[in-house]
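Per your request, structure below.
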C-alpha cells in the first residue's frame, strides 16, 4: 500500500474525505484504518454514506475510554495493521486521540508520517487536543500546514522547513464540493421550521465546556439571552458527549434553545450557511463559518484558528453571558466580506503531491 489513512472521529472523516477522493482520482493505492473512536451512526456512518466514502479496510472498534486507555489500545491495534500492510506513508488529520495514536504507531515503524492540519496552536496545554497536536507534529515527517501562520508556529518550534508544506485546509475542498449540493438537497430549514437569516446555530461539545456544569450552563444562558433580546431562534444539534452531560448534570436548557440530534454534513452545511450567526466551541465550525461568510462567536477562552479572528469573521468571547451577548452584537454589526484564509480548495492534491504521489506537480503554493 502506498498510503494508509488513519481516522476515527467525525471531523477526521469529513476533512480526510477530499484526500481519499484524491487518492481515488490519482489511482494511488490506499487503505483506511478507522480506530472506532466515534461509532454512533450520527458521528460516523452517516458521513461515509453521504460523502460516498469506501467502507474502511479495518475498523479497530476501540470506542470510548479514558485518554490513555483509549489511545493505548489504538496504538497497539494500529501497529498490528501497519506491520501487515507496510505502507510508504501514514496520514493522520487534526488533533484527536486517534491522531496521536496513529502518529505514535507509525513513527516507530519503517514508514513516513504525514500530519494533515499541522501547526495549529491554542497555546493552552490544558486542552487534550493541544497535547495531541504538538506530539503529532513532532512525530511527523511531512507537516501539511493549512496556513502560513501555522507553518510559522512549526518553524518557531524548530521543525525543519523542508518537512513543512502550506497546503490550505482540506475543509475548503469539502465545503467547495458540497455547499451547492446542500443548498439544493437539504430540507433542514423546513424540517425545523427555520427561516434563512432568522436563526442562530449553536454547537458545544468540547470537554472543557460541557464536562463543567457551570461553564455549560453559563454558555447556554448567554446564547439564550442574546436570542431572547434579538428575537432569533437558536438550533443546537447536540453531540452525544454534550447530550450525556445535559442528562448527568440535569442541566436546565433555556426555552430559547432548541435541541436536536447531530446533523449530517449537508444539513449542517445548510444550517451554517443560512444562520445569521454561529455560536460554537468547535474547531471545524469556526473554519466553516469563516469559509461560508457567516459571523462566528466562539465560546472559548482561546482559539487555534487565529486566522478567523484576523479577518474579522470570529470573536473569542468565553462563556460569560454578558461577553457572549456583547460579542454577538458586535459580530452582527460587522461586514461579512472577509476573504477565506484557508486556501483554494485544492489542499488534498497538494498533500498527495508533497508525498510524491499526486498528479498535481503543477499545483503551485497555496494562495489566500
Ligand atoms: C473527540 C475529540 C475532540 C473532537 C471531537 C469531534 C479527543 C481527545 N477529543 O471528542 O477533539 O473535537 O471528538 O467530535 O480525541 N460518544 C458517543 N458516541 C460516539 C463517540 C462518543 O456516544 O460515537 C460519547 C461517549 O459518551 C464518550 C463521549 O462521547 O464517552 C466522548 O467521546 P470521545 O471520543 O472521548 O471524545 P469527543 O468528545 O467525541
Ligand atoms: N458537523 C456535522 N454535524 C453536526 C455538527 C458538526 O456534520 O451536527 C461537522 C461540521 O460541519 C464540521 C465538523 O463536524 O465539519 C466539526 O466537528 P466537531 O465540531 O465534532 O469537531 P472539531 O472540529 O471541534 O474537532
Amino acid at each position: 500500500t502506498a498510503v494508509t489513512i488513519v481516522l476515527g472521529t467525525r471531523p477526521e472523516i469529513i476533512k480526510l474525505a477530499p484526500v481519499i477522493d484524491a487518492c481515488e482520482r490519482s489511482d494511488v493505492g490506499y487503505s483506511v484504518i478507522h480506530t472506532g473512536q466515534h461509532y454512533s451512526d450520527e458521528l460516523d456512518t452517516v458521513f461515509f454514506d453521504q460523502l460516498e466514502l469506501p467502507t474502511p479496510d479495518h475498523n479497530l472498534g476501540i470506542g470510548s475510554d479514558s485518554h490513555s486507555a483509549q489511545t493505548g489500545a489504538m496504538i497497539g491495534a494500529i501497529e498490528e495493521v501497519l506491520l501487515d500492510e507496510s505502507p510508504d506513508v501514514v496520514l493522520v488529520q487534526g488533533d484527536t486521540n486517534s491522531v496521536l495514536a496513529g502518529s505514535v504507531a507509525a513513527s516507530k515503524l519503517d514508514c513516513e508520517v504525514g500530519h494533515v492540519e499541522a501547526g495549529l496552536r491554542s497555546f493552552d496545554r490544558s486542552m487534550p487536543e493541544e497535547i495531541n497536536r504538538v506530539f503529532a507534529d513532532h512525530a511527523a515527517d511531512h507537516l501539511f500546514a493549512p496556513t502560513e501562520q501555522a507553518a510559522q508556529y512549526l518553524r518557531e518550534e524548530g521543525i525543519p522547513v523542508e518537512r513543512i508544506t502550506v497546503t490550505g485546509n482540506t475543509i475548503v475542498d469539502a465545503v467547495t464540493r458540497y455547499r451547492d449540493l446542500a443548498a439544493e438537497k437539504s430540507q433542514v430549514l423546513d424540517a425545523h421550521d427555520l427561516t434563512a437569516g432568522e436563526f442562530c446555530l449553536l454547537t458545544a461539545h468540547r470537554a472543557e465546556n460541557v464536562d463543567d456544569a457551570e461553564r455549560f450552563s453559563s454558555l447556554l444562558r448567554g446564547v439564550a439571552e442574546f436570542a431572547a433580546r434579538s428575537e432569533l431562534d437558536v438550533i443546537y444539534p447536540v453531540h452525544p458527549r454534550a447530550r450525556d452531560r445535559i442528562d448527568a448534570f440535569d442541566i436546565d436548557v433555556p426555552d430559547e434553545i432548541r435541541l436536536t440530534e447531530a446533523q449530517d454534513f449537508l444539513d449542517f452545511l445548510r444550517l451554517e450557511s443560512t444562520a445569521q450567526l454561529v455560536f460554537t466551541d468547535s474547531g471545524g465550525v469556526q473554519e466553516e463559518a469563516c469559509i461560508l461568510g457567516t459571523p462566528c462567536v466562539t465560546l472559548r477562552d482561546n482559539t487555534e484558528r487565529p486566522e478567523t479572528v484576523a479577518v474579522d469573521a470570529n470573536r473569542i468571547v468565553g462563556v460569560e453571558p454578558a461577553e457572549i451577548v456583547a460579542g454577538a452584537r458586535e459580530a452582527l454589526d460587522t461586514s461579512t466580506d472577509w476573504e477565506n484564509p484557508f486556501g483554494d480548495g485544492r489542499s488534498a492534491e497538494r498533500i498527495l503531491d508533497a508525498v510524491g504521489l499526486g498528479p498535481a506537480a503543477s499545483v503551485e503554493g497555496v494562495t489566500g
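The domain at 3-169+343-354 is CATH 3.40.50.2000 (Rossmann fold).

Regards,
D.
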